Amino acid sequence: MKKSIADIMAIRESMQSQIILRDNVDAEKEIHLIVGMGTSGINAGAREVFNALVDYVEEHELKGFRVTRTGSLAGEGHEPVLEVRVPGKDPVVYTDTTVAKAVEIIKNLAK
User: Fold this and answer.
1) Cβ-count burial of 64 within 10 angstroms (0-12 exposed, 13-18 middle, 19+ buried)?
2) Does 4 reside within a domain?
3) Closest of 29, 18, 28 to residue 57, by C-alpha
4) Mean pLDDT in residue range 87-100
5) E-only strand ranges, the chain
6) pLDDT digits (tens, 9 = 90+) for 36-74
7) What pTM did the predictor assign?
8) What is the pLDDT of residue 34?
9) Per the domain annotation, does 9 fall within a domain?
10) Are the beta carbons of 28 and 87 closer than 8 angstroms?
């Protein structure tokens, strides 16, 4: 199905907030949430985890959070994988991440 320019512009507009979430923070001070979006991660629900994190940041107007996606995060068999990087601390990797677990993680980080 071909998309018109108007369709493409509407998609772009709807994704703008996610672009801002990724690109509008200070990398030195941000909390970075990275969702593994390889094929097996997507099949296990990584897209829903990513969307839940983005939605939570937007709904609660959290500042200093960066939500991004990447390819596989080496958690094969334990997807979705979420890596959390907090400045000054070692990264923490969560496996078998559900939407509920991801929301609980970000709630705790936002305190």
Assistant:
1) middle
2) no
3) 18
4) 95
5) 31-36, 65-70, 82-85, 92-94
6) 999 999 999 999 999 999 999 999 999 999 999 998 877
7) 0.76
8) 95
9) no
10) yes
CATH number at residue 78: 3.40.30.10
* Residue 60 exposure: Cα atoms within 13 Å on the Cβ side: 16
Query: What is the tens place of the pLDDT at every residue in 20-32?
Result: 455 545 666 899 9
Question: Which pLDDT score is estimated for 9?
Answer: 67
b/e string for 24-59 if b means 16 or more Cβ within 10 A?
Answer: ebeeeebbbbbbbbbebbbebbbebbbebbbebbee
Tokens linked to 66: 């960066």
Strand pairing class (82-85; 92-94): antiparallel
Question: What is the total residue count of the chain?
Answer: 111
Mapping DSSP to helix (H, G, I), strand (E, B) and coil, where does residue 34 land? strand
